[in-house]
Amino acid sequence: MSSTVSAQALVDELQARSRGVEPLVNAICTPNPAARTEAARLDTERDDGRVRGPLHGVPVLVKDNVDTADLRTTAGSLALAEQPPPPQDAPIVRRLREAGCIILGKTNLSEWANFRGSSSSSGWSAYGGLTRNPYALNRSAGGSSSGSGAAVAAGLADFAIGTETNGSIVCPAALNGVVGLKPTVGLVPQQGIVPISHSQDTAGPMTRTVEQAAALLNVLADGDTDYTASCRGEDLSGVRIGVPRGPLWGYSVGLDQVTEQALEILSRCGATLVDHLSLPAPGGDEDQLQVLAHEMKVDMAAYLGTRAPGGPRTLDDLIAFNRAHADQELQWFGQDLLERSAATQGLDAAEYVAARLTAVQAGRGGIDDLLRANDLDALVCPAYSPAWSIDLVNGDQVLGSCSSHAALAGYPLLSVPSGLVGGLPVGLAFSGTGGSDATLIRLAHAFETARIRANGPFPTPEFTQWV
To answer: Which of these, 421, 360, 406, 467, lies nearest to 180 by C-alpha position?
Structure first.
């Protein structure tokens, strides 16, 4: 998969495109000034016969909540913007560099990965500003990995890193018409990533194609699995895929229509579709918030302790900073989620223990019971509602989504472009039990291949307003 074009030429091409496109989408918050120097070094290695792997010389964008020792890591907050870069790369960034990837820059995100205020607008951060959807500049790029999704869609890189707690990879992937893979929690190292929840957080690939996502997962993941080996054509004979209609359908007529067409494609690939199933509701919002709030307080303090002395060390420090800089930080929405998290009493608290048990039972029990009862390899459903209008005053207006069961379970989830609704991209989501990442890649690649053969390549964005 390593490019036949020199790494320097590829970086030059992407940086030139960025100069024309970035003013429209605002996806990259911190470009890497050393990217071309890194490219030259990797070209020299190639000329000398040393190729580190399939991604040697490939530019990759990294979400701005993943530590990079040579570039600032802010999580979108001004509280970290003036701090020195982290003392070392996150393990996944180290793996990217060791594989010969070029860190092209950092991508904007929903501030604090969309866990600051309950009325937030995805794609906005005080540090990076507002990221827009390349398919409709007045529509949301989703979140929290907004910049990673928009950048891949806009042609600013074929490879990007996102992170997800609940929907933060698959949402912007679906809204921007790219592939997004949230791996099984624990498959990819969590260290060096600004946290929300150790039980749900993971980094993952955001790419143009499923095969690219598999190649990137090969670099990021622990273990010896070659995920690209799962990209083996359209034949899904012998595969059983469940279609849980409830509660994951019915919130968007256009999205349902596109997804029905996607099911026909899967059937033509030879898959057996077991239809009209249902997943139990993924637990109440209160239980989910209890888990995230309790874990964030503990996990954030541990992370901030790795940063340079003199910066914030606790959620209380971050909350105080936001109040002191309210004209910049709190101009659009508040910080009630940070405040709620700061008020929690640790991971031994009875309310956390009970909520975590409920979340695990709802996520893992719901998915695994349905798979087992129907002898299924995976589940398929619509990914996310089409991109909603950007509204910084009132916040996001999400009609529906697919991510909560997999989030609570810590299980993998993959969104692949399935079509357009009124010119807006939508995605098809595959989910399964823990460790089924290779299976989801196989299904998504088969669907992607068959859809392109039937309907042609996915339309590219035109960077216009949607009306």
So the answer is: 406
238 pLDDT higher than 80: yes
291 occurs within a structural domain: no
pTM score of the predicted model: 0.98
Structure tokens at 179: 């592939």
Residue 296 has pLDDT above 90, yes or no: yes
Q: Looking at residue 3, what is its pLDDT?
A: 60
Query: Residue 139: what residue type?
Result: R
In a domain, residue 45? The reply is yes
Domain coverage including residue 394: 7-285+354-455
**What is the predicted pLDDT for the residue at 368?**
98
Mean pLDDT of 259-270: 98
CATH number for the domain spanning 270: value is 3.90.1300.10
Residue 408 has what pLDDT?
Answer: 96
Distance CA 337, CA 114 (A): 9
The structure tokens listed for 443 are 């299904």
* 182 located within any domain: yes
Which residues have a catalytic role annotated?
A: 63, 144, 168
Give the model confidence (pLDDT) of 423-444 as tens digits: 999 999 999 999 999 999 999 9
Domain count, the chain: 1
pLDDT at 281 over 90: no
User: pLDDT, tens digit, for every residue of 311-366?
Assistant: 999 999 999 999 999 999 999 999 999 999 999 999 999 999 999 999 999 999 99
Residue 93 lies in a domain: yes
